[in-house]
Task: structure prediction
Amino acid sequence: LVLHGADDAGVPPKEVSEFEDEMRTAKVDWQLISYGNTVHAFTNKAVGNDPKSKARYSPDSDRRSWIAMKNFFKEIFQ
Result:
């Protein structure tokens, strides 16, 4: 499970695509969720929410990613 800020400047789209290709080649069970209008550290309230920052908190993406993670853990630890 990868929970990714779609606008994270530290992880360019090419690297995301290469990761996806690597996972497909390895034939592993994987999922990648990209959150739009979201940059690095989107679950960390301490980074603040300055729109010009490369790291900023996103309450919507934080909430959605928390739900996705709980669902993932529920599935694999049953």
About this structure: Residues 23 and 29 are 8 Å apart (CA to CA). The radius of gyration is 14 Å.
